[in-house]
Amino acid sequence: MLLAAIVLVFAAFYYIPWLKKVISDFLYQYPHMQKLPGKCEFSGPKRLPFIGCIADLAGDTTVPIKFWMQEAEKVRAKGEGIFAITVLGRNITFPVNGEMVRPNFPPLQYICESPNEILKGKDYDFLKGWIGDGILTLIGQPWRDRRKSYTPLFHFSMLEGYLDAFNKHARVLCEVLQKEAGTEVDMCERVKRLALDAITDAAMDINFDTQRDPSHPYLHAVHDFTHMQQRYINEPQMWVKWIWATLYHRRYKYSLDILNDFSDKIMNDRLKRVQCGEIDLNAKKRPLIDHFFGLNQRGEWTLDDVHFELNGVIFGGHDTTSATLTWIFWALGTQPHFQQQCFEEINDIFGDTDRDCTHEDMKAMEFTERFVKETMRIFPPIPAVERELQNDFQVRKQIQWGSYSKKKRRGKINTLLRQRIFQMGDYLLPKGSEVFMAPHVIHRNPEVNKLF
Question: Using CA atoms, how far apart are residues 435 and 443, in angstroms rounded to an integer?
Fold first, then answer.
């Protein structure tokens, strides 16, 4: 009994400030969110105050995206450009077309490029245990500095080096699939292993060979972490800290320790070879880890920066690539006429040869490239880009720019930017609420695009 009382006291000290902030933010945002189209109105058992429409999101990780698209269809039918939902105190607004993520006057920037509204959404916090304060989570000038450090990686000579790794591991995939000819295979799992082998080779010059050895612990740790990350974004019960700590944290920590330990071991082994002179950090073709070590030696990055950026590259390169390839294989399988056109184009380029693919070959795959891009439009590799608003989105009348000279127009725009005044249609979005730019919603706007 005494122990339980002590636990409750500590829990109260921990949770009361958090709960106070959540409720305070909710009460400030509530009057504004009530005016927005969508499911912020609390009529019916599914949309209770503060809890919101959590019942609509119950289920597997595909349910939220399906729900978002259903809501988008409803508001489009009413002529609206946004919808809003409340889930466990989080007030979230979704634009349903590209025009709704830009202010009313074209010279101003899109919300996703705003110099002021740059705070990432709450779901990014989940990733920090693996990727730290890296390029995926940084904001403002630190992000710009980090992005500048990446620029040399996109030089043609560097890209050629990455292509060698991609060709090598694509051949392994073909080898594995040939052994399973005539049987039904799970391409999702196959391309996950392909993407992981390719990105770890390009980033760290190491081959886990998970395509041939699917029992590798790093593969399972990546799978567990990314699966929990998808659940964290899509299943609101995981946002409740005590539920998370009770049911999920132990598994999360176990996977995270494996991922970070592997990165540390690879870094330490590579650094020893660098210090012994075995590796030239200035080579034209080099893995990402050598470029990162070069930044460390010049005093631009710490070893922690190297560690987290390597993890960020592996996470971003593996997760998005495997999702994209999975849907490409699905689209090829369900659209045989497009599959035939892609096959004929590739066959015209390679003929009967068994040579590696080059950049020139990829440039010649014009139809295949369009097919890949259309598949990515319909099935984007990420669910949403999130921003937490630092300012109210102020509603204002359309400005009559024709009455301004070019010089006065620029002055007016600069004034608005300094005042941090933005607009999304005819609504005010309150400070502290979130904006989710969901590609699945925006890319499926029937007024602009049609599904194949």
Answer: 16
Question: What local confidence, expressed as pLDDT, does residue 362 receive?
Answer: 92
Strand-pair category, 434-437 with 385-388? antiparallel
φ, ψ (nearest 5 deg) of residue 405: -70, 170
Judge contact between 82 and 101, C-beta under 8 A. Answer: no
Contact (Cβ atoms closer than 8 angstroms) between residue 226 and residue 319: yes
Amino acid identity for residue 437 in this structure: M
H/E stretch holding 435 reads strand 434-437
**Distance (Å, rounded) from C-alpha 309 to C-alpha 306?**
5
Above pLDDT 90, what percent of the chain? 30
- C-beta separation of 346 from 368 below 8 A: yes
H-type helices in 249-358, by residue range?
249-275, 288-297, 303-334, 336-350
pTM to 2 decimals? 0.80
Quick: pLDDT tens for 312-354. Answer: 998 888 888 999 999 999 999 999 999 999 999 999 999 989 9
The Cα–Cα gap between 145 and 147 comes to: 5
Beta bridge partners, 429, equal 393
In the chain, what's the furthest Cα-to-Cα distance?
78
Inter-helix orientation angle 187-204/288-297, to 10°:
40
* Strand pairing category for 38-39 and 434-437: unpaired
**120: nearest Cα among 442, 420, 437, 443:** 437
Residue 304 neighbours by CB distance under 10 Å: 12
DSSP string, 119-187: PBPGGGGGGHHHH-SSTTT--HHHHHHHHHHHGGGGSHHHHHHHHHHHHHHHHHHHHHHHHTTTS---H
Tell me: the pLDDT tens digits for 135-178? 888 888 888 888 888 888 776 666 777 888 999 999 999 999 99
- CA dist 418 and 432 (Å) reads 19
Between CA 208 and CA 345 the distance in angstroms is: 33
